[in-house]
Structure formats: C-alpha cells, structure tokens
Amino acid sequence: MTDEERHRATEQQQNRATETKRRAVGRPAGGKSSGGHSQSLVRGLNILEMLAATPDGLALSDVAEDVGLAPSTTHRLLQALFQQGFITQDVESGLWKIDVKTFRIGNSFLEARDFVATARPFLRQLTATSGETANLGIRDDGMVVYLAQSESKQMMRMITRLGSRAPLHASGVGKALLAWMPPREFEQVVAGRTLEGETPNTLTDVETLRDQLVEIRRQGYAVDREEHAIGLNCVAATLHDESGLPLAAISVSGPVARIDDSRLPELAALVAETAREITAKIGGKTPTEPPA
C-alpha cells in the first residue's frame, strides 16, 4: 500500500469515527441538529440568533458558554460573521452585537409578509381613534415578537422596541394568539413549560389560562391587566389566515390611568373590529372555533 493509499484509508476511518460519534449525540456540539448542513454554518447561525435576542450585546466568554464551544472556536465564528457584516463589536466594551446586514435580512421578512404592510394603516387609524399605541405581533415558539407599531403622541405612552419579545401567556397579543391555536399546538406550547410571573397579575396556572382563553374566544378579544408590566393595560385581537389559523395579533396599549376598566369595552370593540377588517383585507377568515 502506497503512502497516499494509507493516508486515504486513515482519513476515511477518522470520518467514520466522527460520523458515528455525531449520530450518538444526535447533534453537533454547540448547535442544533444539522442534518446534512455544515456544522460551522449551524453554529454561526446559533450565535447570530443569540446575539439578535440580546440587543445590548454579549462578551466572547458569554457567547462561548451559551453555545458550548471553546472561546477560540467561538472567536473564529464571530470573526467570520463580522467580516460578512452580520455582527459588529463595540470598541469600548468589546461586546458583540448584531449589525445592519442582519437588520436588512430581517426586514426582508416583513416585506415578504403582506399582512404587516397591510396592517400598518389600520394601526395608525387605531392610534388616531384611541390616542394610544397600537402594536402588531406574531408568535415565535412560546413568545410574542413585535413587528410593527403606531406610537401614541401622549406624553405617557407605551413604547415597544420592534423585535422585542414578551411571553405568550403574559401579554394581550400572546393570549389572543393562544386562544385560537389548534388544541394540539397549544398543548405543545405549554407542555413542560413553566408559566413565569412577569408581574403579580400574570396568569401562572395552565388551567386558569385555559379558562381565560375560552372567554377570549367567546368575546373576541384578549385583555392584559398589568400582566406584562405594572401600570400598563392592553386590549388585543387576532388576525387569521385563510384557514382560520392565528397569523398575528394587534393590540392597543397604554397606562392604566387612561385605559381603565370603564374604557376597556370601547377599546375592545374597536380593536376586535379592526382585527376583522385586516383579516378580511388579507384574505383570511375569522373562525367561530379553534381549527382542529
């Protein structure tokens, strides 16, 4: 056997050993299951996702610990993302953050989803009519992600940074989405998940949440009474797709001093009607029961 043949045989043996180990653990270290994709690509995307969820930035050591990689490996991946313009490093603090290229890619998602553009004038009208901030959010696993907002001109007002998140069970938008999920999907969301209390008013019991979701479906809107933030009330309703599934939800939010119990019915009717109008505009249908 020549040296080249011995080298090729050794390389094949090492590859088989690596593949056997990978199958044993089910996924590459520091990343989600990659299937046939590049391990480095999966790791880099995991890092990008982590930084996107941490707007203030992360130190190298924190990134390495969270993804379960050596600092040297993590630094190489960060440098690759930096060179491609996806992330940047703060000169003074040394923290890594997402950069404008990531924003542009994320913004292309909004442009591709017509319901966001369609909803914007409705959000502005909600703000003009109610005087309060109007929001649109979608579900991402067990969280709400806010994609659009029409800001109130009041001195005291609710402001949510676009891309920010809130727990489904602790927000008006989230509960509006939960209420119309297919039962099996709802069970997957709450299975093995602790409903954390954002405030003393947050619903942390699954059965109590179930009962409230029944009421939300009956009345056509959800209410957040200081469940996500003390001093802030919210009324929300669901946007449905062509199959009646929850696509997104809109809300009107503001300080308790202006959105008190006496004003909730007025705002609830306004938000629910606006949600029905947007649903019709995007070709969706408002169901009477959650899709099976």
UniProtKB/TrEMBL annotation:
Keywords for the protein's UniProt record, in alphabetical order: DNA-binding, Transcription, Transcription regulation
Q: Give me the ranges of the annotated region Disordered.
A: 1-38
Q: Which domain of life is it from?
A: Bacteria
Known Gene3D superfamilies for this protein? 3.30.450.40, Winged helix-like DNA-binding domain superfamily/Winged helix DNA-binding domain
- Give start and end of each IclR-ED domain: 101-284
Compositional bias of kind Basic and acidic residues: 1-10
**InterPro entries reported for this sequence:** GAF-like_dom_sf (IPR029016), HTH_MetabolicPath_Reg (IPR050707), Tscrpt_reg_IclR_C (IPR014757), Tscrpt_reg_IclR_N (IPR005471), WH-like_DNA-bd_sf (IPR036388), WH_DNA-bd_sf (IPR036390)
An example Pfam family from this entry, by short name, is HTH_IclR
Q: Which PROSITE patterns match?
A: HTH_ICLR, ICLR_ED
Residue stretches making up the HTH iclR-type domain: 38-100
Protein name listed in UniProt:
HTH-type transcriptional repressor AllR
Give the originating organism. Answer: Salinicola acroporae
